[in-house]
Design a protein that fits this description.
The protein has about 700 residues and is an all-alpha fold. The protein contains 35 helices and no strands. The chain starts with 10 loop residues before the first helix and ends with a helix. About 40% of the residues are buried.
Amino acid sequence: MVATSQPTLHPMVFQLLKYGILALLSFCCYYSSLEGTFVFDDSVAIVKNRDVTDANISLIQLFRHDFWGSNITDKDSHKSYRPLTIWSFRQEVHLLGGGQLNATRMKTTNWLLHTGIGLLLPSFFQAVGHRHRVERFGIEFWASVLFVIHPIHTEAVAGIVGRAELLATVWFVLAVLVYCSLFEDQKRVPAYTKQAIVLAAVFILTGIAVLCKETGVTILAMCAILDVLSNVDLRRPWSTLVNNKALIARLITLFQMSCLVIYIRLWVQGFTRPQFRDKDNQVAASHGMVKLLSQSYLYSLNLWLMLCPDWLSFDWALESIQLLKTGTDFRILFVLLFYTFLGLFVYRRRFHAQFLKALALMVVPFFPASGLIRVGFVIAERILYIPSLGFCYLIALGYSRLFRKYRRIAIAGLLLLSTIFILRTIQRASHWSTEHQLFRSALRVVPNNAKVYYNIARLATDQGDKQTAFEFYEHAIKLYPEYEAAHMNLGNLYREEQNYRLAMEHLRRAIELHEDFHTAWMNLGIVYAALKNHQDALTCYQRALKKQPHYPNCVFNLGNLYHDTGNLSMALATWNETIRQDPHHIKAWNNMINVYDTTNQQRDILALTARALQYLPGNPTLLAARATALAKMGQFSQAEQIYASLVQAHPRVEKYLQNMGVLYHRWGKLDQAERLYNEALKLNPTSEMAKTNLAKLRSSRHKRSN
């Protein structure tokens, strides 16, 4: 591990070579996954999050919302407050993407961030290890290599919402680098001015990190531990600590800063706790010895995932990991092995600062997910992104010792490990390219996880594969009978099949399991409306809106109910409320247009489409409705301009050719009308409307000739 010969190349060349290798390894691991789609949580946090997609949401509003776009103070909010991460998504959409979502661009940004972190790590590990002499390809480099290629990072890098971990890690690494500059020379106490500047900088970097991901709050504690391990004699710690007044002052300052950051963070969420349900994390919901043993088993499992990252899954909820309830559970052996290993390691390395620093880098950033604070997940690979810094450094330290004694074995082992990790990362990153691959890959790892089957069924529904959807929803319910979302979606499938009895059975069961399930209330109302049971439908919609007042889809369905009962004024008023809540709700716009068209209120259609096109510019359905209204009012030239643009933009869409043909037919331009009808028939030879219109045209032409 230690170079014995003098380098034959300039040191700068070696630096560029090291950075080039790290960048190349990162590229090899993730290149194949960049051409992917939005998967899993990306849908809620990005695609459906108005904080990301709606340019009208102000920056102030963004800082009042949680990661999923809800008000951070709402009782149903998960209190995940990451406004800078959301802001980065928003900039990609509106500044770089012209308002368009692009998964490849966002995945590429994640990969660039991961690569950038990898390039920072040699300096980071050098500062953490307090090493003045660094080998050409030494501990710092191999720790960085291991970090860049480690498969545990695929969720954070290939999953777009993992941006939170990546951004927090950037500021974590920079903050530690800045802080470690204080004790570059152990023999010299840093000047007061330098300490003040460094501490202020670290505090600012911590604040930025916390606004990216909550784990950033651990930066200050990490700095304190590194300070102690760098400046205290571990063989007589108390005496050296007491005599180092500058160190004590820094520790007190760091503690005060930590309290201030935590206080501000709690103030933002209104000093309220997130309301997680037991099924999200049954370990956190357990008590006593069961909780202690089960949480300890999770510690050992997290360590195992870093040692052997084969057993990886996008989700570990819904009893994927059973609680340790009895002393006869064989998994207690893993708990004992974990604590035995940890105890022996700390005891044998209690005087070795580097090893203790590596251990601290693993433990301190993991603390928010350690179970002492209740979280909404059992295991999440992404939260191991920062703790793996310590793991990779620890492995590199162990490798350096092995290299000194068994050089050939060490080199062969390192090459084998690196090859395995690279191949596994490439494979796992490809799973994160599409939801189909991601969800299916989890069946091998957590076959008893009902959420996996639920997500496969949901995806099958979107793809029109109802047979698979029925099968997997039913299996999800078999694994977890109290899975209300599966009951609701299965009920919706039965509703689409017009099996209203089973639809009502599952929707009612979903509501029994979760009384505040506003989506289930709305869907039950849709079933009642289909059965013409208008009063019960109205009651269900009202219950849904009581649970969730801002609910445009439910308001829209309520408008449909009023329309079905003949109350057109209430239907129009309700659809207007729908578009007030969601101006992009095209179905509400279309329904109002249809009502005005039925009552021959063409001027109202023109006014309505003018409003709608402000929010949905260029929408072909709205433009077609506007052109039709103009044609009915005899304003043929204006209607022709709109239809011409639609036909040019959508030359393979039959209905626009037909509509323009009808326009010319009304206008008396029969040759143009006949040409367009024939073009429509070329696209769809079975079109009855085109055939009928063409027959009418020829009939009218025949009458004229006679």
